[in-house]
Amino acid sequence: MNSYEKFLSSLAKNIKASEIRELLAVIRTKKDVISLAGGLPDPQTFPKEIIAKMAEKVVAEYGDYSLQYSETKGIYEVRETLAKFLKDIRGFETSPDDLLITTGSQQALYLISRTLIDPGDVVITENPSYLAALGAFKMCGANIVGVKIDEHGMKTDLLEETVKRLVSEGKKIKFIYVIPVSQNPAGTTMSSERKKHLIEIANKYDLLVLEDDPYSYFVYEEGVDVTAIKALDTEDRVIYISTISKILAPGLRIGWIASPKHLSRKLELVKQYLDLHSPTLNQYILAEILKTSLIKEHVRKLAPFYKVKRDTMLKAIEEYFPDDIWYTKPIGGLFVFVYVNVPGFNAVKLLNTAVEKYKVAYVPGKSFHTDGSGENSMRLNFSYPPPEMIEEGIRRLGELIKNKG
Ligand SMILES: Cc1ncc(COP(=O)(O)O)c(C=O)c1O
After folding, report:
1. Residues 277 and 391 placed together within one structural domain of the fold
2. Residue 372's domain spans which residues?
3. pTM higher than 0.90 for the full model?
4. What does the pLDDT look like over 301-348, one tens digit per residue?
5. 180 vs 30: CA distance, rounded Å
6. Spatial CA neighbour of 179 closest among 104, 234, 115, 126
7. Taking CB atoms and a 6 Å cutoff, what residues make up the pocket around ligand 1?
8. How many domains does the structure of the chain reveal?
């Protein structure tokens, strides 16, 4: 057959590859390139022995149940254990009935989009924002409206202006999506005032908030307020999502939604048709780990480990980059985001030269921007490469920026 075009859905016809995944696939084949482009946790942090021990225990103790089909929302015992963990670590109450175990938080993003968005609806996000979230929203037909950020996160005064404008234009806003702690890609953390203001706006204009929280479980600075927005919510408007990808291992593909009461059933019904349920064995493994002190002990080790890498990157940026840059000093997460304010600097156009001539890779920041801006920005990952590679990679990028190619 020559062409399958006529068989494709309009979604499939229009879908675009994730630029990052394509880029990473190419870079992976070039062994001499230092990649600051990925977003992978360092595999040295994976608690392999704990996971192996728990997998054995689960299969021995739960027997056939550990490998059987299970409830769409997630195994009750797992949701119960997770509810306790969230109360303890993130400070909000959620009933196991309103928790939904998902296949990574990426599935949560898609599931929520599928449940809430009709084509043409508006989703408000930070600008820049997480690429794969923007992709999921767009796939369901959302019009994305970005709101500028600074080092304190989304500028909520601008958010309120935007909401007012959209409401006066008769637009349907489905939710406001934020990553309040150590945002991907920008590395920003929302201040307490902004979080309160965001909730006030949601209450005033009757809106939902989607809080994506993969990075607050360990941070590199003391005394920063990382209170969950969900913990400030008095009107059940916040849909909270998170994941074990950064605290245990992404390959287990377990995330969750702590949903407002009235949404949990609909989310469950939509998930039925995506995958019936998330992996039973992995859910039990998570529950066993959460029941012990192992999780806290493990998470406690992550902050000092990644802090060394973050500090290496920040120090190298100070040393090797020109002065005309704006960048975040993230309190957590995996990335530093840099805007290069050198006239003519275009991170998209220079990527090929960076890889071929300077042997260093980054993700052009433009992909994360909702309005086509950000050509002069780049996302730099510090979690995966070893410190000496981080320093050398930044040195090479410094040369690229100074020479503009
Ligand atoms: C902000 C944000 N949300 C969601 C995800 C998806 O994570 P996962 O599907 O592994 O839970 C990531 C992954 O990097 C992320 O940075």
Report:
1. no
2. 9-46+297-403
3. yes
4. 999 999 999 999 999 999 999 999 999 899 999 999 999 998 889 999
5. 35
6. 126
7. 39, 104-106, 130, 179, 184, 212, 214, 243, 245, 250, 255
8. 2
